[in-house]
Each structure stands twice: as C-alpha cells, then as structure tokens.
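Re: folding output
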Amino acid sequence: MTGESLVDIVLKYVRDQIISCGFRPNQQLKEEEIASFFNISRPPVREAFSILEAEGLVVKKPRRGVYVTEPDIADVWEIYTLKAGLYELSMELAFEKIHSQEIRYMEKMIEAMQRHTRDQSFDIIQYQHIHIEFHKAIMEIAGNKRLTKYAQTLHNQVCRFSYRALQYREHVQKIMDYHKRIFQAVKDRDRPLACELMKEHVLEGLRFQFEISEHKQWEHEETAEVQILDGGLE
C-alpha cells in the first residue's frame, strides 16, 4: 500500500470512531496506539491527525497530545446554519446543469438511502456515506470547488451530531422525506422549491439537535433532583 492510502485508511477509521462516539469528546488519541492497531509507522497517523484537526474533529494541545474536540450547542448552531446556506447555494448553482443522467444518479442515491432506512439493523455510518454522496453529486455539478471543500469540512464536523439524531427513527423518516421532496422538485424543474428544501432539511437537523439537547438537559436535571431527594431521605 502507498503512504497516501495508509493515511486514508487511518483517517476513515478515526473519523468514523469519532462520529459514532467510539472515541469520545475530550478523549486523548495516541499516535503509537493507532499505529500499533494498524501495524504501521507513526507518520501516516500523524498526517491523518493533521487532516482531522483541519476538519475540527481533533485538537492538538502543546506538550499534551491530540484530543477529540467537544463542540457545544453554539458550535452546532454555527455549523448547521453555515451548512444550510452552502447546501442551498449548491442547488442554486447546480440546478440548470442537472440533466437526465444526474437525475438518474440522484434517484439511485435516494433508493439506496431508503433501503437502509427500511433495514432493521440500520447502519448509520453507511447511511451517512450515501447521504454525503447525494449532496456531493449536487456540489460537483455546481462546479464550485471552494464551496465543495467548505461544505465537506462542515459536514465532517457535524457528522457526530447527525449520527446521534439518526438513532431516532422519527427523525430518520423526516429527513428521508425531505430528500425525496428535493429529488421530486429537481425532476419537476422547480428551482425555488428545490433550493428552499435543501436549506430547510439542514435546519430541520439543527432543530432536532436542540430538541435532543433540551431533552437530555431535562433528564440530567431530573436525575440530579432524584439524587438530592434520595440523599435527603438517608
């Protein structure tokens, strides 16, 4: 294998572990441990860490090492709102260039996502990969390389949050419905609707993140209250 392919292998592994919380926020990632896991030298791991740092998934702390980042809800808001704007712009730029061949490809991506949502052993990571391909295809048609690069970086930063949200079936079905409506708007040559839906479906993800956070905060407060009451009864 080439040095580049080793970097790609390590990059995919570490990124997927961060997304699925196999590597948790604030966890230290050690070059020697990951290099040993793959039975490779440390330079490809170091290079993968540099890419992940540029994506905002890890941070290098001087004299301490590399740690998984822990974005707060304000970071989530920033990422999702920027992503919504870029996704809307990608559709605006791509719309007149989308022809029958591109529409067929988009349809295949929709069908692939639907197959995964019907599967009882729902593979979230694989679903996310297909979802990325759907939007990547639109961005490649748009032909704006910087837009594609920035959108991909934002997507990588937000993937761990969407992974959490995709564990809720009602959210999966709602997002799937958005993708089908986006595809139908493209087929119907309804540019304003396609652009609006591209933006809306990202903001729906943001809305659901706030809903999850509020629910978890409520659970935390309720648990703390029970512990206080239990302590008072002793």
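--- second protein (sequence, then structure) ---
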Amino acid sequence: MKQTIVHPELALNRQAAPTSSEPALAFSLIVPVFNEEDCLRPLHARIASTFRERADWELLLVDDGSTDRSPQVIRDLAAADARVRGVFFAHNCGQTSATRAGIQHARGAMIATLDADLQNDPRDLPAMLDLLASSPKLHAVVGYRVQREDNLVRRLSSRVANRTRDWLTKDSVRDTGCALKVFRAFAIRELPLFEGMHRFLPTLMRYHGFEVVEHPVSHQPRRAGVSKYGVRNRAWRAFKDLIAVRWMRGRIRRLPIAEITPLRADPKD
C-alpha cells in the first residue's frame, strides 16, 4: 500500500465528524446498475455469502434508467432480503449520478462502492473495511487490480490514462478505474460529485485533506452482460474531466480551523 497527500502543508489531522446521532449501520455497499439483469442475483449471492448473517450492512442497488429487467430484479431482491434497497432513476444519468444517489441514501458509517458486472470480488471488502475501521486517521481505502482480466487494448489504454492522469493531477493512484473503494461516509459526502468525478475520488479526497491508502484486490472476467465502456466512448470525456480536476486542484481552499469551542447544553451555564 502507498499513501500520498497532495498538499501536506494544508492537511489537517482530521477525525470523524461529530454527528447528532450514530449511523444506523456499520457500512453500506453502493452498486450503480445499468442493464445488468443477469449479474444482479449472482452479485447479491456473493455479497450475502461474504457477510453471511451479519445484519449491520445494506446493499443499495441504484438503477440508472435500465431498459432491461434490472429494475424488477432489484425489487425482487429487496423483497427477499431486507438488507437490499433499490433506488431507481427515471432515466439514464451516468455512473457518477448513480453513485451520488447511493451516497445520499446510505445509512452506514462506511460506504463501499463496487460495479455490478461481477468483475469486483466482494470477498476483498472485509479486509478493506477492517483496515478503514481500525485506522482512525484514515478516510478511504481504494482498490487496485493486481491482475487485470481484460483484453490487451483495455489494459494498455488504462495504463496510458493512469500515467496521464497522475501527471496532470500531481497525484499518484495505481488504478483509478477500479470501482472497489471504501470511504468514511462523512468524508465522501464533502466532495463535489459532478458527472465523471467517480473516476477521481481518491485524488479529490486528497485535495480536500483526507488520508487515502491503496489496497490490492482481485479482478474477475465478465461472465454476463456487456461492458458499457470502451476506449472510444470514454477517452475524450475522461480527458475533459481530468482538465476539470486539474483546475480544481488550484482552486480548492480548505479552512485551517485549529479549534472550535464545545457546545454548551444550557447557554445560562
């Protein structure tokens, strides 16, 4: 694992933000869904098997305007397992919007993201969740795929994109395309999530002074459904998003608050 802070002179020793009430659950799993009807039941089975009979988690399946039977499968899963919740868009909005909707509705103290296509293995999540939970000064654990189960073109294009990304953002992330990530809920909710920003969450967190480490994860070949991303249909959009992130790096201002006096129960005390 490696750790990078982009602006160490601005980083604060940030602890969990105080809340008026404790989170209802230990963690929430967020899965954006777009036309993945054949993957959803096996995905739920793998997640349920990984966490067995634990009841302190939830799975939020966010349907991004699917045109297949994904919405009905999500409703069936939610009816059969109380830990499953469905969020449904009226039309397709993109992966960042689906991720944002999941974050807004999550009830867990920690939030994990993963893809619906079965290429992420939920069995990698317990170690990542344990690492985050046991490290109070840590705010995110992001996965990097140690052995990509993709074709040569996708692997080479990803390598070029990662190097270009690191050069422009002045950050270092091994595998920005890996969806398997775990965050403290209060930290991820501080980020501006506009379209395309799901690719840059570790860097955006570091820009805001949060601590991020990387963790090795496995990668599975796609066994059902069709990939929604290709080199041609995402390269230009990703580059434009990258320019926006580079601009944000110079514009973000973090408040150097050193102390806040505690609230008093009674102003007359």
